[in-house]
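Structure (tokenized):
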């Protein structure tokens, strides 16, 4: 049967500054999280869709970086089944999905945020086109964020650019546990030029998946404390962003990275994702800060790689420090020169 349409979205990855770790109910966060959307690390997902007669469930073929990939096929299959419960039109379609990451799979960068957000954007677009649904851009993005969350929590933040909040937060209008919202209008100019140097310490597979890790929080003795600390850090970080307060930003961001990894260490079974080079880089950065008084910060995701965050005005000095002191601690000298981004873009629709 002839294809009836095609859509493609590019959606970026994001780095959490206040971390989401631990869930309640259906993919709802224990505490609000705040992220910065990136530019260079993104996923492009293209879907060609064709009508089918058997209306029981959607069918699809998946090519990941141009090849079949059973691991992603299973992940995407469960996600599409969840989405098809709401968008029954998907049950009458066959989807040819082609998805590629701008960063290598082995870069140690989590791809679930960019890949599931790009997929959610495509599926919502297809539903709206076939059903003739007209949504404002704001409603479209909110719905896409809601859908992306069902695939991966962090993915709901990738639907927006700049700084993004996911989770109900006192005094932040429209904040919700069900979808993310943009903080763009609340951010001081200072943070709009932020860079993220991603220092790849190891590109190996993680010893534990994030869904296994989230589950371990249910029994972590520090669970309630973590949720409360995450809540107050979200409120304080929003204030730091508003006031252009880089010192406060740094205190919160570096505490959050330590607190996340402390949760890993105190889970049962406990797990360690940092490597010796992670600590060496952190020590070098602290020393460099003491020596220069430059205002920058670092964070870690669920892995050993360092995200080094700094503003445009100190870029020259940071690049030279990265090149002379830090690259030698990166795996094969690998690092990604990323920066704050504008969020997803529609790259094709036919
Ligand atoms: O979205 P998930 O289920 O892969 O969890 C992401 C968890 C962290 O990356 C560690 C933190 C975050 O908020 O992105």
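Design, position by position:
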């Amino acid at each position: 049967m002839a294809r009836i349409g095609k859509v493609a979205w590019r959606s970026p990855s994001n780095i959490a500054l206040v971390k989401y770790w631990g869930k309640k109910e259906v993919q709802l966060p224990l505490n609000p999280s705040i992220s910065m959307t990136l530019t260079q690390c993104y996923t492009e997902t293209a879907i060609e869709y064709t009508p089918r007669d058997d209306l029981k469930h959607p069918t699809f073929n998946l090519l990941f970086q141009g090849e079949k990939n059973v691991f992603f096929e299973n992940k995407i299959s469960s996600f599409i089944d969840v989405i098809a419960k709401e968008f029954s039109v998907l049950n009458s379609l066959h989807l040819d999905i082609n998805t590629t990451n701008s960063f290598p799979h082995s870069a140690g960068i989590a791809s679930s945020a960019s890949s599931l957000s790009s997929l959610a954007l495509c599926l919502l677009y297809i539903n709206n086109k076939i059903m003739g649904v007209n949504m404002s851009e704001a409603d479209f993005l909110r719905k896409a964020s809601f859908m992306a969350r069902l695939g991966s929590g962090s993915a709901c933040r990738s639907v927006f650019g700049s700084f993004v909040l996911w989770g109900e937060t006192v005094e932040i209008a429209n904040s919700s546990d069900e979808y993310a919202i943009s903080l763009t209008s609340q951010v001081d100019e200072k943070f709009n030029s932020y860079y993220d140097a991603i220092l790849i310490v190891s590109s190996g597979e993680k010893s534990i998946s994030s869904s296994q890790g989230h589950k371990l929080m249910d029994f972590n003795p520090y669970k309630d404390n973590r949720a409360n600390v995450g809540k107050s850090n979200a409120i304080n970080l929003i204030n730091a962003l508003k006031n252009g307060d880089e010192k406060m930003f740094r205190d919160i961001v570096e505490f959050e990275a330590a607190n996340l990894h402390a949760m890993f260490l105190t889970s049962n079974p406990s797990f360690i994702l940092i490597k010796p080079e992670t600590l060496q880089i952190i020590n070098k950065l602290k020393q460099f800060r003491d020596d220069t008084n430059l205002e920058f910060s670092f964070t870690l995701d669920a892995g050993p790689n360092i995200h080094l965050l700094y503003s445009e005005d100190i870029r020259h000095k940071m690049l030279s420090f990265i090149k002379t002191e830090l690259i030698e601690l990166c795996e094969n000298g690998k690092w990604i020169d990323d920066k704050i981004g504008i969020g997803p873009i529609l790259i094709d629709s036919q």
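Reviewer-requested clarification: Residues 168 and 175 are 5 Å apart (CA to CA). The first strand starts at residue 5 and ends at 18.
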